[in-house]
Amino acid sequence: MLFEAVQFAVAAHAGQKRKFTGVPYIQHPLRVMSRTLLLPDVTESMAAAAVLHDVLEDCGVARQALEERFGAETAGLVAELTNVSKVAHPEANRAARKRLDRDRILGISRNAKRIKLIDRIDNLRDIPEGEGFLKRYRAESLLLLEVLRGADAGLETELERLLEEPDKE
Questions:
Q1: CA spacing 20 to 30 A to 10: which of 51, 53, 138, 169?
Q2: 2-83+90-164 is a CATH 1.10.3210.10 domain
Q3: Tens digit of pLDDT for each residue in 104-154?
Q4: What are phi and psi of 100, to 5 degrees?
């Protein structure tokens, strides 16, 4: 299943580039999956969800398609990892959408929270220093960390350390 999930993600993200670096977007989900595979109690569904974590939000893939292909557990994790506010409340400003997403994330599973921590860590490492957006993203990440607490102390500490790094902007 994992190989199939990687192929699916590669096809879904075909042609997409990372906003600040211009590298193929698929590198991000592949890094998140690779890091998820290092968790001591990782399941195949967790690893598959990690590589698929942005396909609902960014690629127009339907949850039902994921469920049919990868099963309910994987599709459920991907749904938990999806920021639905962009679709549900496109009229809301970024701060309001992020607040809605944090409120929803409070209730997601521990495994989804762990993947979300890995995702955030990878995103923070991928935004170049000197990029004006980094300061805002760090502030949003600090708020997000509060609703992810209790999922994985090691990942939480790693995210905290990244957020404590001085701005070089």
A1: 138
A2: yes
A3: 999 999 999 999 999 999 999 999 887 788 899 999 999 999 999 999 999
A4: -60, -40
